[in-house]
Design a protein that fits this description.
alpha+beta, nine-stranded mixed sheet, 9 strands
Length: 269
């Protein structure tokens, strides 16, 4: 009789444990790929200033440097998940050992906002979802992975090898940019443009990784439908009927002239 009761209790305990484990698994953020997004700071700056002409930009000292936007866990065919743990807030102390590198490579171009605004947003929204993977399960690991990938997959060098270099006059085709990245990395990227004054500006290049952190095609991410362009299927929001500008960083000469003009204006009042 006692053995039967113990056996029944054991079975009940097993059932409760199974249910608890299943609930934990169900509550885990579900996603398929990681999107590693790099931004071209000159375009970010142009867009930032278009929103308000009083805005200024914080640009990396290396004028060839693309900057990191984020690492985004993504479920195919949709956007997100996001904000997977709203109690796990960004803590600047956790990234203090790599802060100088983050300032140069994960730069908050939008001057006038908090130094930590971009990092805080990326961790709270995306990092807490990526943290289900052991290599990304802390702030330090998450941001350090971005730094490592930015050095391993340098967009400037990849494009430059195909003759695609920053210019305020030359325009490039989306196909040329796609081929440059595809030929180098062997996977389909996402090419994102910003539209300003009816012109295409190269804004971001996104490459994808599997949960094992291997390069992977970005096909199926962000509800972005591929566009057929000269026989190639390309993931892009760029207007393929026109070329794409890959602008230079703002020249210090123009900045100094602007400051001089402001000083002369004040002096003559």
């Amino acid at each position: 009789m006692i053995n039967a009761v113990l056996r029944t209790l054991f079975i009940i305990c097993l059932g409760i444990t199974y249910v608890q484990l299943r609930e934990i698994k169900t509550n885990e953020p579900q996603w398929d790929l990681l999107i590693f997004t790099q931004s071209w700071p000159a375009t970010v700056c142009i867009e930032w200033k278009e929103h308000d002409h009083t805005h200024t930009c914080n640009l990396p000292s290396n004028k060839d440097s693309w900057t990191i936007h984020g690492i985004w866990p993504t479920k195919l065919g949709t956007i997100g998940p996001a904000f997977c743990n709203r109690t796990w807030h960004f803590d600047p102390e956790q990234v203090r050992p790599i802060e100088k590198n983050l300032e140069q490579l994960w730069t908050n171009v939008e001057s006038g906002t908090s130094t930590y605004a971009l990092w805080s947003h990326e961790w709270n929204k995306h990092g807490t979802c990526a943290a289900v993977l052991e290599p990304l399960n802390s702030e330090l690991k998450y941001f350090n992975m971005g730094l490592n990938w930015s050095q391993k997959f340098m967009v400037h060098n990849i494009l430059q090898a195909s003759g695609i270099v920053p210019s305020n006059t030359n325009e490039y085709s989306v196909l040329d940019m796609y081929n440059s990245i595809k030929n180098k990395l062997g996977v389909n990227p996402v090419i994102e443009c910003r539209k300003e004054k009816s012109k295409n500006y190269l804004g971001e290049i996104r490459i994808c990784f599997s949960k094992t952190l291997d390069l992977h095609d970005c096909d199926g991410v962000l509800n972005l439908k591929a566009k057929m362009y000269e026989g190639k299927s390309i993931l892009t929001n760029c207007d393929t009927s026109q070329g794409v500008l890959y602008p230079h960083y703002p020249s210090n000469t123009y900045v100094n002239l602007y400051k001089l003009a402001m000083w002369l204006q004040w002096f003559t009042i």
